[in-house]
Design a protein that fits this description.
It is a single chain. The protein has 3 domains: 59 residues, Structural Genomics Hypothetical 15.5 Kd Protein In mrcA-pckA Intergenic Region, Chain A; 84 residues, Pseudouridine synthase, CATH 3.30.2350.10; 109 residues, Pseudouridine synthase, CATH 3.30.2350. The longest helix is centred in the middle third of the chain and has 12 residues. The chain is α+β, with helices and mostly antiparallel strands and 299 residues long.
Length: 299
């Protein structure tokens, strides 16, 4: 594949540029290709951290995708919607989406492989069907692609920002405005690598919109819509306003002794997308989990 960096790509890291242009492939797979010398910039091998100037010719030689390797595990899986191309899963809080550092079993992928004979392999052998992710502590709707063609169509929708993603969040403090937009760029925190930050000028553009659903003495209940899909976007954007998500200790959230407050109060409530099978717009909703309902009731 031959790509040409445009003037607007000047200053972007090579791996970030490839993520934007080749959204059908996972970030880790693209980085593996760069390390293996399968990505050439103006005919020469390059590092993932190379900063583009604009105008470069970038040649990508994809490696053959490995076969499905995630081990099937007979564990519960709640399906909210399915058709010939896509499955919408109701992910509980605490469930890791796919294997990673320190986690090799009990993931959502392990459950998917058990329940479905075939899934997309575009994301790699350890992430069959996974088009997007939710943090471990976040519950709610997550889309899974049944085949490679469906994966590419869904990935293009996410990249083109035509997928509507709506969350429910309880945040600390009283949010002043009834609604608002947050557009602060998001980057990896250079000191605490597990966090993201809005304090650097080198961050990626991000858009979060919110509106108040209910007010409490010490908390505000919000509906939040994502215009982009950055890591920890809702959590870091709301924390940047001085209103971290309740229970989110990574970004300054605290617990107030609520019995059900053993998790972050962030729920992927609704997602709207065009089904690759029919082309029709599909809206899938995940009811607010019982533990979060009880948490609200205590307020």
């Amino acid at each position: 594949m031959i790509l040409t960096a445009g003037p607007r790509d000047a200053g972007k890291r090579l791996d970030h540029y490839l993520q934007e242009q080749l959204a059908q492939y996972s970030r880790s797979r693209l980085q593996d290709w760069i390390k293996a010398g399968r990505v050439a910039v103006n005919g020469a091998d390059a590092k993932a951290s190379l900063l583009l100037r604009g105008g470069e010719s970038i040649e990508v030689s994809p490696a053959q995708l490995a076969p499905l390797q995630a081990a099937p595990e007979d564990l519960p899986l709640e399906i909210l919607y399915e058709d010939a191309a896509v499955i919408a899963i109701d992910k509980p809080a605490g469930l890791v989406v796919h294997a990673g550092a320190g986690t090799h079993s009990g993931t959502l992928v392990n459950r998917l492989v058990h329940h479905f004979a075939a899934l997309s392999q575009v994301g790699g052998e350890q992430r069959p069907g996974i088009v997007h992710r939710l943090d471990k502590g976040t519950s709610g709707v997550l889309l899974v692609a049944r085949n490679d063609a469906a994966h590419q169509v869904l990935a293009a929708q996410f990249a083109g920002r035509t997928v509507e993603k709506t969350y429910l969040a309880l945040v600390h403090g009283r949010v002043r405005a009834e609604s608002g937009r947050i557009t602060k760029p998001i980057a990896r925190d250079p000191v605490r690598r597990t966090r993201m930050t809005t304090r650097l000028t080198t961050g990626r553009n991000a858009l979060t919109e919110y509106r108040v659903l209910q007010r409490f003495e010490r908390f505000t209940y919000l509906e939040v819509r994502l215009g982009t899909g950055r890591t920890h976007q809702i959590r870091v954007h709301l924390a940047s306003l001085g209103h971290p998500v309740a229970g989110d200790r990574l970004y300054g959230g605290r617990l107030y002794g609520t019995p059900d407050a053993q998790r972050i109060f962030l729920h992927a409530w609704r997602i709207v997308f065009a089904s690759p099978a029919t082309g029709d717009r599909v809206a899938v909703e995940s009811p607010l989990p019982v533990d979060l309902q009880r948490w609200l009731a205590t307020l």
